[in-house]
Amino acid sequence: MSPKHVEQMYDALIVGAGAAGLSAALGLLRSERIAQMTQEGRAPKILVVSKLQPLRSHTGSAEGGIAASLGNVSEDDWHWHYYDTVKGGDWLVDQDAAKLLAQEAPVTVINLERSGVAFSRTADGHIAQRKFGGHTAHFGQQPVPRAAYAADRIGHQILHTLWQQCIAQGVEFAEEWYVTDLVLDERHERVEGVVAYDTHTGKVHALHARNVLLATGGAGRLFHTTSNSWDLTGDGMALTLEAGLQLEDSEFVQFHPTGLAHTGILISEAARAEGGVLRNSDGEAFMQRYAPGHADLAARDVVSRSIMAEIDAGRGVADPKDPQGPRDCVWLDMTGIDPEHMHAVLPQVVETIEDYAGIDPTKDYVPVKPTAHYTMGGIPITTDGEVYTWADGARHKVTGLYAAGECSCVSVHGANRLGGNSLLDACLFGQRAGAAVAARIADSHAVASPDDNAVAAEDPSQDAVETTAQTRRTELAGLLKPTGQAGENTGSEASSQPQTLQDDNAYQLLADLGSAMERALAVRCNHDSIAEALQLVNEDFAERARALHTHSDSTAFNQEVTAIWEVRHLLELAKAMLRATDARHESRGSLKRTDYPDRDDKQYLAHSMVASTGTVAWQPVHILDMPPQAREY
Ligand SMILES: Cc1cc2nc3c(=O)[nH]c(=O)nc-3n(C[C@H](O)[C@H](O)[C@H](O)COP(=O)(O)OP(=O)(O)OC[C@H]3O[C@@H](n4cnc5c(N)ncnc54)[C@H](O)[C@@H]3O)c2cc1C
User: Fold this and answer.
1) Residue 318 neighbours by CB distance under 10 Å
2) CA of 312 to the centre of ligand 1 (A)
3) Residues within a 6 A CB radius of ligand 1
4) Whose CA is nearest to atom 51 of ligand 1?
5) Ligand 1 centroid distance, CA of 265 (Å)
């Protein structure tokens, strides 16, 4: 659906309709002051813009669960959740944010339940919870079931529930509209609005807003092997960089240990939580050796590195689909799980393995390898979702700009996220950001006299949003080539280089970028691997990105237009990620630098803050009551 008409000025624009964007919309509308304004006939003007139909957002693919100490297990308590989150993030976590996450987790889950999420149940009717990597009690001594689940479809449940609630509240959506620009004032201190491209008609809109909230999800498509859907191209992060702001901790990318061989499709951690075991080519359950306390349920970075160590030692296995191919996988053995139980609690996992690998996990070992899964870093925000920059030793907020969910970094995940904490982050901090926007709207309506931002219009040359939209329209006209002029090459094999720039296309560039980033950063890296990728990104790929054009001049549903903008966004992000990675001379959490193998708290107990120029500033980590310790599982 597109909005019936575009308003002159929005009180709030929410970009993204996954768990974070929808939670923000609900957090905003459920604020008492907004309800009051609505009753008085002064309902604020709010629009949710999403490049996908909301129910196609990646949140819907989440499988395993959402973490919370619900009190169903006597040993568990939010303090342990807090401790595990800080330890899981290798002490790069802001402890005030993590404390809030753990404390507010139970009420967040209960609210989801009351909104309609159909959780699986225990025999006595409680919300069912399963063990997940790194979730324990008693300082890591005892794994506890903390991930509240709905079979292996928690994301589907949450996304549909939040969306239904939004529809019930009358939220207006601009679906399949792609945001191309974030517009700030000249000093980068205040938000002015966004520019959005309606993919149905090809029309570029200038959307003015007093508040903009970015909830655009992750950037897994930076890598060739990824669990992420095709839309996860880091748009919000790139928009932030392009607007002159910074990203925090962008060097931390989680590689989930169990991507299905040669597809990268996620085999949920729930498979190991229910009894699945990783085995090498000798049949050995090797995780016992690397993490004697937690074995297969150690934190994800630990398990992924252990898998790579086995492969390096020659104990990897080849994908049975390609027996002569590289031995770059290990086995996931699920045959010890009772088949009936497996079908009951892991139906989606079973179906994925049957459909994509053509094998039966109740009888056969499943070939898996690490897959790019989650971006721990992102747009720096406070615990109320306010976006800030870090300069001169202080945070400087950008008035009216907010972010939430995977595109943001409130710093609860630090250098490595624990399973189940991401949906929680998106729902909790999405809701909090929405509430903060609501307060700002109510405050400004209470004091506002004439329309302070009635920008738009008197002098169009002063209207930054319209000016940016105009630039975008001109660029778009240049991208759209008359039919028949362009080359025929639409190949997507990473190996087939385009013959000329004229033959090139966004999908080929995406594949080449994915391979380069995988070679440079997957699971481990060093200065040389980073430098090689940076050179490609800055030179060859940059030139190719500039030369891209579409192969049809249609403006209606021309997906190649957005594919071009997406790959350009990924390049912007790749540059920042590579620079930040190069600047951190240590190994911590998901970042394993073979040239700096140890953690260095003296120098790097700090968040990297990288700008599009490549400069990196360092922001100290908030430590409350847990000074750094050695991290063992
Ligand atoms: C396969 C898989 C399984 C997972 N399992 C779990 C799990 O069990 N537990 C857990 O806690 N986490 C899990 N995660 C992680 C978790 O699902 C995500 O981090 C979380 O759902 C992200 O929510 P989000 O709202 O930030 O983003 P998303 O749900 O990705 O939504 C992003 C939204 O932004 C919109 N958008 C993006 N760019 C633009 C643009 N330029 N213009 C307009 N709109 C735009 C999209 O249309 C979309 O609506 C899993 C992730 C994957 C990939």
Assistant:
1) 16
2) 32
3) 15-21, 49-52, 54, 57-59, 61-66, 154-155, 178-179, 215-218, 227-228, 231-232, 235, 266, 374, 405-407, 419-423, 426
4) 62
5) 15
Tokens representing 120?
């699986």
- pLDDT at residue 487, rounded to an integer: 45
Specify the pairing of strand 46-50 against strand 173-175. parallel
Spatial distance between the Cα atoms of 417 and 300, rounded to a whole number of angstroms = 8
236-289 pLDDT, tens digit per residue, is 999 999 999 999 999 999 999 999 998 999 999 999 999 999 999 999 999 999
Overall average pLDDT of the 421-439 stretch = 98
Q: List all residues 6 or more positions away from 199 whose beta carbon is below 8 Å from its beta carbon.
A: 51, 176, 177, 178, 557, 558, 559, 561, 562
Q: What pLDDT shows up at residue 424?
A: 98
Instruction: Tell me what pLDDT residue 493 has.
Output: 44
pLDDT of residue 490: 44
Nearest ligand 1 atom, CA 423:
11
Is-contact 437 191, C-beta < 8 A? no
* DSSP assignment of 593-630: BTTB-S--HHHHSEEEEEETTS-EEEEE---SS-----
pTM over 0.90: yes
Task: Please give the distance, rounded to the nearest whole angstrom, from the Cα atom of residue 254 to the centre of ligand 1.
Answer: 14
- Between 138-152, 273-287, 363-377, the lowest mean confidence (pLDDT) is in 138-152
Helix-strand-coil percent breakdown of the chain, rounded to 5?
40, 20, 40
Atom of ligand 1 lying closest to residue 65 CA:
8
Distance CA 247, CA 296 (A): 32
| Catalytic residue annotation | 300
Q: What is the pLDDT of residue 486?
A: 46
Cα(426) to ligand 1 centroid in Å equals: 9
Amino acid at 536: L
| Closest ligand 1 atom to 239 CA | 41
Q: What percent of the chain has pLDDT over 70?
A: 94
pLDDT in tens, 20-55: 999 999 999 999 999 999 999 999 999 999 999 999
Ligand 1 atom, smallest distance to 149 CA: 8
Residue nearest to atom 13 of ligand 1 (CA): 62
Q: How many Å lie between the centroid of ligand 1 and the Cα of residue 236?
A: 12
> What's the CA gap between 130 and 590, in Å, rounded?
24
Considering the four listed CATH numbers 3.30.70.2740, 3.90.700.10, 3.30.2130.10, 3.30.200.20, the one that applies to the domain covering 254-373 is 3.90.700.10
d(CA 64, CA 374): 14
Distances (CA, A) of 105 to 77, 146, 147, 215, 457: 11, 11, 11, 20, 44
Q: How far is CA 325 from the centre of its chain?
A: 31
